[in-house]
Amino acid sequence: MGKTKCMKKATYQDREKAVDILCQAFIDVLIPNSINFVVNKSRNRHKRLKALMEFQFDLSMLDGNVFLSDDYKGCILYLNKTEFSLKKLLLEIKLLFTCIGLSNMLKVLKREKLLKSFHPKENFVHLWLMAVIPNEQGKGIGTKLLNESLQLYKGELIYIETTTAENRAFYTQNGFIIFHETFELDYPLYFLKHV
User: CA nearest 173: which of 159, 157, 192, 156?
Assistant: First the structure.
């Protein structure tokens, strides 16, 4: 007997559920990391975080894939391409005003430039974001979701950056290797790849 699948490819009808999983996973994570670097700290963290997660869902649906665990407790977002499009530009402008804020814009652009400088030179798929709702973490949902989704990209270079030692350990335990790390921002950045 084959393994039963634990995930499904998301559609736009899953947007609210996916955004909710992402928000639940990150709303109480207040340590310096990529998400908190982008989310303007001025006020209404939940609203700004939700705007960021909606942007990431929408862009992944446009330029990649979103997968959900069948029980809607986990979510993983991939970007397969990075070409310019008008729709992408409009999503980025909306993100600027609903999440980043004009006062934070230059700092975020500098961060994006830094991240891109460490992207692999060859073609790659960007594992952009992964989340499991807090009360379900540590139960294997993320591992199953990661491994099952990686099967769909078999033979392709998968790239991710992460900021915490826990995430770094999770990805290395699941076949990723660290190829660079930097402390140029307010938090560590680990760059990993999987082939």
Answer: 192
